[in-house]
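Retro notes
What went well: the complex prediction finally ran end to end.
Inputs used:
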Amino acid sequence: NAGVTQTPKFQVLKTGQSMTLQCAQDMNHEYMSWYRQDPGMGLRLIHYSVGAGITDQGEVPNGYNVSRSTTEDFPLRLLSAAPSQTSVYFCASSYSTDFNEKLFFGSGTQLSVL
Amino acid sequence: LAKTTQPISMDSYEGQEVNITCSHNNIATNDYITWYQQFPSQGPRFIIQGYKTKVTNEVASLFIPADRKSSTLSLPRVSLSDTAVYYCLVGDPDILTGGGNKLTFGTGTQLKVEL
């Protein structure tokens, strides 16, 4: 049971490039989400999904796309990277959509956009 | 509108008890209070959750007064390895039906433990 796995751990992009941050969980969790963490800002919710085929926007969704074709995977896409997207990205999952349910986090992806 | 308010930072020494208080004046009736811990270069991890009165596990205790407008995380006899950021969270009251686990993380409390 690997929990929540994020790849890559580090990535450097040039402005305008696109890429996908991968997130997978093997706990059969219904709910998955993406956060970004910037110094002094805490964790901010980007997008979330309450099940396969269902996604919704969080607090800071602009510049990011998501899809949820399977229960296990929830990739985050940057279509045209900008320096403002330099951040640490965390994927999280929980067993159900109950907002009191415990979240399990991945180890993060450090992204730098030059 | 911030959902929770915590001290930005706290300092302690090994062996001391540390109490971190969180204010959550707008907590909803059905909300639980959850605390997460984050070490550098890692994702947050759940440490304790409660609804009212007192909850204790192998890591910490959580004290919640009757009005539930605040809560206190208590770490007994801290060590250097307890140096981390601690987040206090409550469920988002705007999300009541199938909206998912839209937990709001603030900036947390940076706890620094020294020898």
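What we learned: Chain A touches chain B through 30 residues (CB under 8 Å).
What to try next: split runs per interface for comparison.
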